[in-house]
Design brief:
There is one protein chain. This protein starts with a helix and ends with a strand. It is globular, with a radius of gyration of 25 Å. By secondary structure, the protein is α/β, with parallel strands linked by helices. It is 39% helix and 21% strand. It is built from 16 helices and 15 strands. The strands form 4 sheets. It has an 8-stranded parallel beta sheet with strand order 4-5-6-7-8-9-10-11. It has a 3-stranded antiparallel beta sheet with strand order 1-2-3. Strands 12-15 form a two-stranded antiparallel ribbon. The N terminus is likely disordered. Helix 13 links the parallel strand 8 and strand 9. Helix 11 runs parallel beside helix 12. The structure holds magnesium ion (MG). Magnesium ion (MG) binds next to loops.
């Protein structure tokens, strides 16, 4: 029996009537788009200019404002908010991040947040290299949405106790000794300070701070020293000044030199610029005592969680940092802070026009909002 004969016989037996009537092509298309429109999210993208309270200087740049990329993800009447701060060090810029997100906005809108693991992995592949901040904006917004949908604050989703959120540092940017003293006095509510070093003025900076406070200090050289013996001398001096740890004393590529420095000093050395992916962490353990996890480097909450777990599996210290950003990104990071040793989440405290209210700091301790998702309030 050929196919035509079989169909004729089947039709006679009533089989054909059991099959659904095929819709005309146009109607079928309309039904499909109607169905997907019901299940699609709305994605809104913007760049927000965050004004700094003080001109911010590190070894890399000096500025009075920073721009971050924001993404609002609305579905089923719920809006999740995300933010990413592109890091110039990794060749990431706000305008390019927003363009990259615009190019795949339809895919973000069509993804299924109930299957966020594969959905966000797919978005990560689509964004490609040098779009970690863009990825962070998507990941944070979707995870805020998921938390709100489940009616759980994100720390609870991760099984964490907000009472375990440790004391955070407050950063003092590089400045003249007089302004450094003034900034140190303004930081009175914070029990631990973080200081940017890596310039010729390091000793003046630390001396200025020490003239007004005895608080523990953590320092960040942002790859500032290129001579390993100079780095050893500087760190040995910092060890006499009540400094607890140092971040990235030498450029990320000077791996062997950092190993040498570690053999000559006592304080923990934390990898920041050198730590850019989960896969690098086991190698970093040879030269560093810990890593600085940032959502803007990892590409969001889920990947930052993986970095933390990888470091912990290797018995490494974990710092949880942020870029200068609003309470959106800082609060997202703060939900993971019960897992870390050294939170450094003050990016939102350094700006004067925060569009959100979220994590708070009381006596230096991070206070996580208990509302669902990130728990943000939108201020405007
Ligand atoms: Mg750093």
């Amino acid at each position: 029996m050929n196919r035509r004969q079989w169909l004729k016989a089947a039709g006679a037996a009533g089989i054909m009537t059991a099959l659904p009537n095929p819709l005309p092509a146009a109607s079928a298309q309309h039904a499909a788009s109607k169905a997907s429109a019901i299940n699609m999210a709305t994605v809104n993208l913007s760049i927000k200019r965050l004004q700094l309270r003080h001109t911010w200087t590190t070894t890399m740049s000096s500025s009075t404002y920073r721009e971050t990329v924001h993404l609002a993800y609305t579905r089923d009447g719920i809006t999740g908010y995300g933010e990413g701060a592109p890091i110039i060090r990794y060749e990431e810029y706000p305008a390019q991040a927003k363009l990259a997100l615009e190019a795949i906005a339809d895919k973000i809108a069509a993804g299924d947040p109930a299957r966020f693991d594969s959905f966000l992995a797919d978005i990560r592949r689509q964004l490609g290299e040098h779009q970690h901040a863009a990825m962070a904006a998507v990941d944070i917004a979707v995870m805020d949405w998921v938390g709100k949908k489940l009616n759980l604050p994100l720390y609870q989703y991760f099984g964490l106790d907000p009472a375990d959120a440790p004391v955070t540092t407050f950063s003092i940017g590089i400045d003249t000794p007089e302004i450094t003293k003034q900034k140190t006095l303004e930081a009175a509510p914070y029990p631990v300070l973080k200081v940017k070093v890596g310039l010729k003025t390091d000793e003046e900076t630390i001396t200025a701070i020490r003239s007004v406070t005895k608080k523990p200090l953590r320092v960040d050289a942002n790859e500032g020293w290129t001579d390993k013996d100079e780095a050893v001398r500087k760190i040995n001096w910092l060890e006499t000044q009540g400094v607890e740890l140092i971040e990235q004393p030498m450029p990320a590529h000077m791996f062997e030199e950092v190993k040498y420095v570690r053999s000559k000093v006592h304080m923990p050395i934390i990898a920041d610029e050198a730590c850019t992916s989960t896969g690098l962490i086991p190698k970093l353990k040879e030269a560093y005592d810990g890593i600085n996890v940032k959502l803007d480097k990892a590409g969001g909450i889920l990947e930052a969680y993986r970095w933390i777990k990888m470091a912990r599996a290797l018995d490494m210290k974990v710092m949880l940092g942020c870029m200068i950003s609003s309470s959106c990104s800082c609060t997202a990071a703060a939900h993971l802070s019960p897992l870390v040793d050294y939170p450094d989440l003050d990016g939102n405290l350094l700006i004067s026009n925060d569009p959100f209210e979220g994590v708070k700091v009381a006596d230096g301790k991070l206070i996580l909002p208990s509302r669902p998702g990130l728990g943000l309030k939108v201020l405007g």
